[in-house]
Design brief:
Elements: H1 3-18, E1 22-30, E2 39-46, E3 54-59, E4 64-65, H2 69-89, H3 104-109, H4 116-122, H5 142-157
Antiparallel strand pairs: 1-2, 2-3, 3-4
Length: about 160
């Protein structure tokens, strides 16, 4: 019923917080059993890069919470950073994921313009886990696996 108000609140918050335009993909009202108030679960994308999907909540009081845009943007930054490594290890293979543990401290410490690679280099307490899948042919052997591991290590040493 008040989806349009929640959407308007989200768009205003996003514009004020990040100084860019966004598209709202969906607004869904949620209320957990036993709770007094529900919230609107909102998904969207920045108009400048529609590959970045994020979510947030707008409460019945129209307060915004759980904004995941920074996390989504930084994950996308990292995917772009590691694309050259994937190209070396698996030429032509375009299906991979980079998953980063981004804690609340990083979200509060850095602004949206900061690239995740810069955060990785500046923040000595930051841990990063990289999960990659690669496509190999049926004849892939132990020597090729060692060479791929070496190439990955060299790529990481160069600071991406």
């Amino acid at each position: 019923m008040f989806n349009y108000k929640a959407e308007a609140k989200a768009l205003g918050y996003l514009k004020t917080t990040y100084q860019e335009d966004f598209i709202i993909d969906s607004v869904t009202y949620e209320k957990q059993f036993g709770e007094r108030a529900g919230s609107y679960y909102i998904t969207g994308r920045p108009t400048a890069n529609k590959d970045i999907e994020f979510s947030m909540h707008v409460g019945q009081d129209f307060k915004v919470s759980d904004d995941s845009y920074k996390e989504s943007k930084w994950r996308n930054d990292s995917i772009q950073e590691y694309a050259p490594l994937i190209d070396v290890l698996s030429p032509g293979f375009r299906s991979y994921a980079v998953n980063l543990p981004i804690n609340e401290g990083l979200i509060n410490k850095y602004n949206i313009e900061t690239k995740y690679g810069d955060i990785r280099n500046q923040d000595e307490n930051n841990e990063e886990y990289l999960y990659m899948g690669s496509s190999v042919d049926a004849g892939f052997n132990e020597q090729q696996a060692l060479e791929s591991g070496y190439r990955a290590a060299q790529f990481m040493k160069q600071g991406t």
